[in-house]
Amino acid sequence: MTTKNFPIFDCDSHVVEPPEIWEEYVPSRIRGWVKTQFHFHTDTDLLCINGRVVPAARERSNAAEVGWPGWDKKVIGSLTPGTEEWKAKLGRVAGCRDPRARLRDMDALGTDQVMLFPTWFVRLALVRDPEAARILTRAYNDWVYDYCAADRRRLFPCAVLPIQSVEHSVEELRRVAKLGFKAAAVRPCFWNGRYPTLPEFDPLWREFEELGIVLAMHTFPSREALTPDWVERIARTRASGQGLLFTDESVVYSPGQFVSNICFAMDPQIDSSESLGFIFEAMTWLTTVLMTGWLEKFPKLRAAVLESNATWLPLVLARSRNFLDLYAFQRGRAIKDPVETFYERCFIAFESDEEPVYRMWDVYENVGIWSSDYPHHDAEDAWEALELMERHKVPSDVQAKLLGENARRLYGIDPLLVVNERFEAHEPAKLPW
After folding, report:
1. Of 40, 44, 38, 79, which is closest to residue 62 (Cα–Cα)?
2. What is the pTM of this model?
3. Closest CA to 22 of 142, 199, 114, 196
4. From residue 375, how far is each of 25, 167, 304, 308 by CA, in Å?
5. Is 125:253 a contact under the CB 8 Å cutoff?
6. Edge-to-edge, what's the strand order for the sheet holding 368-371?
7. Which residue has the higher pLDDT, 5 or 84?
């Protein structure tokens, strides 16, 4: 039987937003209007966004709520979501909405504590109305705070912010800090045409510093077309007439869009956003903040790069350092070595199957933080990470850092050991249909 003797912290796991966020947490007097600006959960086939209604059947995918390490990924990928066979063999994991089901699943996953991130609400970057974004983020943050009430020693909520407005974001950050939130998620993409490193956002990052909140840079699939021509081309290839997968408009907001659009316009189509799009978003943000000295403006800011794997980190650090030296004549001021800056201020998430992290454990020893991505379709458990670390002879003290100590140090959370040994068998509870 596999055992462990140190607490494991999952730095990036997910909830999947239920209808209750709109029906109970958005004030009734404005609920109808708010739903026209953004309304989507996996109980519906329609997305409402920016006053438009988009067929979103493809978004009811196995990615959101079908993730258990014991399930064969080839089986997951071979079944069409929503079919009777899919329901019988897989179904939707209840822990994504039910905290008590999650706690039972965490015991089986080998996870003692977890930081919880949204699923669909990372899409708020596409919402144009600042007031709608403000109301929605408050509703989500209140819901996830209540979710964590099931066990506040093990469940920790990450806030979302209405980045459409710096003022609204500062207000919400102060509010959630008083509730005890340790981190707030920001997607490294364009929000209403503005990238979050631009100077108009500086007051927000200073507030992060002042409050001691972690800036959690969390990537997400990029599935909108780049131009009207691409809208038509993707629609023709899909032969569905539905156009895009999340909106029916052309909008440029993420570097991950490029690879997604090319693959969606080809036949057969394949969703490449998770394989490379996530990484492109994270690499873009990290290269930007390291080569411009952006992080030096906020000396107390702590940042984590999440949902984008970690194997690429040495390449970005080396290239940033190399070209900072080669283009020193373009700078009006000295910029600190990007490698030193990253290791002083930043952390990066890795998943259980990333064996290069274990082979190069000395690179990640003090900055690597483990992520399960439960309950999404590529979820992994802590037991696999422990097995691979042993195979690659990662020292036991480094294992404890990578699987918990680093994340707790980042988030400022006391350790709690709940799980000591691996379950022989566990079947996660399912959501009813």
Report:
1. 79
2. 0.95
3. 142
4. 23, 33, 21, 16
5. yes
6. 9-14, 113-117, 155-160, 183-186, 214-218, 303-306, 346-351, 368-371
7. 5
* Whole-number Å distance between alpha carbons of 70 and 213: 35
Indicate the domain borders of the chain: 9-221+271-411
Tell me the three-class secondary structure of the chain, residue by residue.
Answer: CCECCCCCEEEEEECCCCCHHHHHHCCHHHHHHHHHHEECCCCCCEEEECCEEEECHHHCCHHHHCCCCCCCHHHHHHCCCCCHHHHHHCCCEHHHCCHHHHHHHHHHHCCCEEEEECCHHHHHHHCCCHHHHHHHHHHHHHHHHHHHHHCCCCEEEEEECCCCCHHHHHHHHHHHHHHCCCEEEECCCCECCECCCCHHHHHHHHHHHHHCCEEEEECCCCCCCCCHHHHHHHHHHHCCCCCCCCCCCCCCCCCCHHHHHHHHCCCCCCCCHHHHHHHHHHHHHHHHHHHCCHHHHCCCCCEEEECCCCCCHHHHHHHHHHHHHHCHHHCCCCCCCHHHHHHHHEEEEEECCCHHHHHCHHHHCCCEEEECCCCCCCCCCHHHHHHHHHHCCCCHHHHHHHHHHHHHHHHCCCCCCCCCECCCCCCCCECCC
Segment 181-203, tens digit of pLDDT: 999 999 999 998 999 999 999 99
Least trusted range by pLDDT, from 8-22, 83-97, 158-172 = 83-97
Overall residue count recorded for the chain in this entry:
433
Supply the pLDDT for residue 238: 64
Identify the pLDDT of residue 241. 46
- CB-based contact 121:17 (threshold 8 Å): yes
Is the domain covering 9-221+271-411 a CATH 3.20.20.140 domain?
yes
Residue of 287, 334, 338, 337 lying closest to 312 (CA atoms): 287
The rounded distance, in Å, linking the Cα atoms of 24 and 91 is 25
Handedness of CA 237, 242, 246, 247 (dihedral sign): positive
For residue 203, report the phi and psi dihedrals to the nearest 5 degrees: -60, -30
CA pseudo-torsion sign 117, 288, 171, 33: negative
The pairing of beta strand 346-351 with beta strand 303-306: parallel
